[in-house]
Amino acid sequence: MQTFAFQSATSVADAARAAKDADTKLIAGGQSLLGAMRLGLATPATVVDLGGIADLKGITVTATTVTIGAMTTHAAVAASAEVAKAIPALAFLAGNIGDRQVRNRGTIGGSLANNDPAACYPAGVLGLGATVNTDRRSIAADDFFKGLYQTALADGEIITSVSFPIPARAGWEKFKQPASRFSLVGVFVSQGPAGVRVAVTGAGAGVIRVAALEAKLEAAWSPAACDGVVIPAKGLNADLHGSAEYRASLIPVLAARAVGAS
Fold this sequence. Notes:
Blueprint: E1 5-8, H1 12-19, E2 24-27, H2 33-38, E3 46-49, E4 59-61, E5 65-69, H3 74-79, H4 81-86, H5 88-95, H6 100-105, H7 108-114, H8 121-127, E6 131-134, E7 138-140, H9 141-144, E8 145-147, E9 150-151, E10 159-165, E11 169-176, E12 183-192, E13 195-201, E14 208-209, H10 211-219, H11 244-261
Parallel strand pairs: 1-3, 2-3
Antiparallel strand pairs: 4-5, 5-10, 6-7, 6-10, 8-9, 11-12, 12-13, 13-14
């Protein structure tokens, strides 16, 4: 790993000022950035830690919304009784990210800003129709994810929190890669204020919605509604863990299981 300067931000404004420098990287939990630095894929001159900014941590639950601070760890979301009561599927998702070390270091903001194509949180955010709040604006989930490791965030823009509308029903299922515990395919389903949403991670270059499954579940919210839905394999991932066809076949199966668990 190359040498670099290390700073701790004391406020969002402090971090935003530092982030204006193109040679500076912000670090949340560090689960992705440090690995990239070790491989020489990221070479920042300065790393600014967001861990000391209290305003970026915490969970607030109202009658209609769950809002999670960007620096809130996966473990904290999984352990929250309020989240488990309001959106059980979201707590379940957080509790099954990676291993214990990852859950205690990784953060929701870091996961979304990195937008790994097999990460779990993007499916929860898109599947629930959440809103990503930054130091500059609020971005609807449908507008936030732009492709492989790409988001709508501008240079230096900082995620401050994520607001989830509380659904009537929601479920999450993933077929994990056993070594990394990333989703080979993961499916988040919800029936809420904006109707039925089905979001899939791990199958393509980024998280996607599946209109065919949404239409079937809009007509009848039941596992059986997913039977017979054929997902095209074209454009899906193929690697040593599974072909595009295999991933395509997993999507309706996992969707049915998620509906059954909702």
